Amino acid sequence: MRLQVQALNNRRLRIQFMMVVVLLVSLLVGWMPAKAAESEADPAVQEVFGQLQAGKRLKSDRTYVTPEQPTVYLTFDDGPSKLTNQVLDILDKEDVKATFFVLGEQAKAHPNELKRIVKDGHAIGNHTYNHVYKELYSDFQTFWNQIQRSEDVISSIVGIRPQLTRAPGGTATNFDANYFYLMEQAGYIVHDWNVDSGDSKRANVPVNEIWQTVKASPLDHEINILFHDGTGHESSVQVLPQVISYYKKLGYTFAALTEQVKPKQFAISKPKWSRSMSLPRFQALLDQTQEYATAHPNAANVAKIAEEKRLAQKLEAEEEAKAKAKKEEEEEAARILAQQAALPLQVHVLGGNTFNIEPSVYKLRANQIELPLRYLIEKMGGKVEWQASTKTANAHYGIYDMDYDLTNRSIRLYTLGTQTATYSLADMDMQNNQIIVPLRKTIDSLGGRITNAVMAGDNRQVTMALRPLYFFKENNSILKNSLFAMGG
């Protein structure tokens, strides 16, 4: 019997051990993808996530317009309700526009009031669906879902998807940096307030208490006043005419909030709600909000996209114009070059002979005339010999000899048999078994110079002079022949 009990206990231990192993493996498997996802996340997203986790608000690139006149923005939360029509009657009488941050469930219950808000020219903002703090601030996904649900209700009644939003209870201690960033990525504008009427401190706040609270509030160029038009806020309705009169006497104008109005927002403080955010979770939420922004661009984004498109089209048109102008310039240059190349070049040696170089022989390239070495030297009365073994051309002209060494790209100049100069990296090229050289540099190497060049219209002329050898005796017949050959 004892053996049976012991065997049973051993079996139980083995089963428990296997269960622990399975649990550890499942935890490891579940942990590894998350870690892998974090390591594979976009570095830019990781950077943003890190800053948000540190509680840093990231600057929005949205721009706003400051009104010229001091302005009051009356805002009403938690409606619409049966009181909303009374508020609208007062606003109509006072010729004042306001903003209503509506709850989805209230809009669904009071569609006619919502329609009248729009019909009377007031603005609508999204105040979530049911106003339940614990649901809204335990997790951003729930907050996001409520914003979407409320928006769908509003859109189904009045065809508007409001970009203005207000967090129930305000953002202080409710929002963290993640909430702000993700809402901004979706294109929403989150409004708090800078004057609280105090009409929601408790049930049935007296009219005089609301009035004294508003009157004691600091003045600013732009004032966003928090009121409520939900059930139980009869005092808010009663005090409204007095509040409007007060600010009108101070010189304020009234307006509804728009996407151009810079929102009043509370600074980030430690949230009173317990929640956490992982990088994969943040990435998923970011994808949702950015997909929404793409599917529902607000007026600012539409204008931005249109401006970017206009600038892109302008840039494209400018680039096309530049490309067209460049092509026309190149075509004109090619035409001129072809025209120039189609004309013979007349070469006149001062004191010597004149000869023509046919268009098929010379080329104009980079503002210089290029032609075969042999052709030039022989036209001038000299001669050229090719040494195939060394790939060297020996040009003889008058008292000058020049060795064109293709292998080393050098020219060696001899005067009366004595080497007088060496040119390294010389300008020469082999084309169709001919050494091509620049006219001006070659004449310079022979001790001469180009004195004039005309390349206008149908006139192609080059005049050159060779340096006279005045330091030799005139009765030396050899030198006289050399002078004659050089045109000296």
Automatic annotation (TrEMBL):
- Keyword terms: Coiled coil
Name of one Pfam family that matches: Polysacc_deac_1
Presence of the UniProt keyword Coiled coil in the record: yes
PROSITE patterns to which the protein is assigned, alphabetical: NODB
- Coiled-coil stretches noted in the UniProt entry, renumbered to this chain: 305-340
Instruction: Name the domain of life.
Output: Bacteria
The record's Gene3D superfamilies line, in alphabetical order, gives: Copper amine oxidase-like, N-terminal domain, Glycoside hydrolase/deacetylase
Q: Which residues form the NodB homology domain?
A: 70-255
List the SUPFAM superfamilies. Glycoside hydrolase/deacetylase
* The protein's name: Peptidoglycan/xylan/chitin deacetylase (PgdA/CDA1 family)
